[in-house]
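User: Hi! I have a protein structure encoded as tokens and I'd like to know what sequence might fold into it. I'm fairly new to this, so please keep things simple.
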């Protein structure tokens, strides 16, 4: 049984999708074993599929993206060092400082000059390599970048970021919770994005619609160490095939349709852009950031909620809408009209 949604069109986030009837059947019928004792066949199948798609030697299934990112930090950093990372990234903002609490690392926040972090932005904040400054141990890239509006870091830029990391003799981790979206939007295979990173996290519970789970992929040696870290964190899951089957179903059935979410995001953006001075970040994937001319994001969110549309207030003057597989093009187009009216109302007051 599922609970009735609070909104008729819920665009607050893409994690709210519910497993479809077919996905539930795949989960119910999954072949299972004990993944902590001697391997769960459905989990292994998912891990092999993801490793192949990402072009990495090995992948590990995790209960969440948060834990997979933390495992990457524990794997690639040392306590008392710092991570070079976009100031608006998930790891630096929404893991409740797990990086500090568990990995003992600081965050060296990079504020991009333009929309997404470039190698030149990173170079501007890097400390000189001497005995006085805190040493960087890792470079992190979020792709697509949620806080920037679901924007894609290009292969060209990833190449430059990798070169910078190599010069500094540090590894590169990609938080690719929504890397699926970058691949579908550009037509560039996932493994091409991943070739620049030592480790990559991908999430199954966003656009792919699985109930839970993420994977961390990388070299075989790294992933053997990450397997120990996962167990230490309490991420060893016994009959994990039940949930892995949902994730695999998402990869096999819901990946290509992400293009529909991107098309819906463009329609939504067109409906609200320019209304009373509101400006959208032109969407490249499934996220629409609306910048309001005044700090009235909470008011717009409340007004939209009254009209049955779920949005989130990202900053005092920025509102976020996310399209996903539980909302149709028709619903999103309708939501765009209602949100445009809400902005009209609030700004016109
Ligand atoms: C959702 C998300 C995460 C965390 O994934 P969970 O499975 O919710 O823990 C990490 N990074 C980014 C960019 C995300 O969007």
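Assistant: Happy to help. Inverse folding works backwards from shape to sequence: for each of the 349 positions I chose a residue that suits the local structure. Here it is:
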């Amino acid at each position: 049984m599922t609970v009735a949604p609070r909104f008729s069109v819920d665009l607050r986030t893409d994690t709210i999708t519910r497993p479809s009837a077919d996905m539930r059947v795949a989960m119910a019928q999954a072949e299972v074993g004990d993944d902590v004792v001697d391997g769960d066949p459905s989990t292994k199948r998912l891990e092999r599929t993801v490793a192949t798609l990402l072009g990495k030697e090995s992948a590990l299934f995790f209960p969440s993206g948060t834990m997979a990112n933390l495992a990457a930090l524990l794997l690639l950093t040392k306590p008392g060092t710092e991570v070079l990372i976009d100031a608006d990234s998930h790891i630096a903002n929404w893991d409740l400082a797990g990086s500090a609490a568990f990995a003992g690392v600081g965050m060296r926040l990079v504020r991009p000059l333009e929309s997404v972090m470039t190698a030149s932005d990173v170079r501007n904040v890097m400390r000189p390599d001497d005995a006085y400054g805190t040493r960087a141990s890792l470079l992190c890239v979020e792709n697509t970048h949620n806080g920037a509006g679901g924007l894609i870091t290009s292969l060209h830029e990833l190449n430059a970021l990798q070169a910078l990391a190599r010069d500094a003799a540090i590894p590169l981790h990609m938080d690719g919770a929504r890397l699926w979206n970058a691949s579908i939007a550009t037509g560039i295979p996932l493994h091409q994005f991943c070739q620049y990173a030592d480790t990559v996290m991908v999430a199954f519970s966003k656009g792919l619609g699985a109930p839970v789970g993420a994977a961390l992929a990388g070299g075989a040696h790294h992933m053997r160490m990450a397997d120990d870290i996962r167990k230490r964190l309490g991420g060893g899951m016994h009959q994990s095939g039940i949930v892995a089957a949902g994730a695999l179903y998402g990869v096999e059935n819901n990946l290509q349709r992400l293009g529909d979410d991107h098309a819906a995001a463009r329609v939504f953006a067109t409906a609200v852009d320019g209304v009373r001075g509101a400006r959208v970040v032109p969407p490249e994937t499934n996220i629409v950031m609306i910048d309001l001319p005044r700090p009235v994001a909470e008011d717009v969110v409340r007004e939209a909620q009254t009209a049955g549309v779920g949005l989130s207030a990202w900053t005092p003057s920025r509102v976020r809408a996310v399209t996903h597989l539980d909302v149709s093009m028709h619903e999103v187009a309708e939501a765009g009209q209602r949100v445009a009216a809400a902005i009209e109302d609030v700004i016109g007051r």
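A useful reference point when you look it over: Residues 64-66, 69, 90, 142, 146, 175, 177-178, 203, 205-206, 214 surround pyridoxal-5'-phosphate (CB under 6 Å). Feel free to ask if any position seems puzzling.
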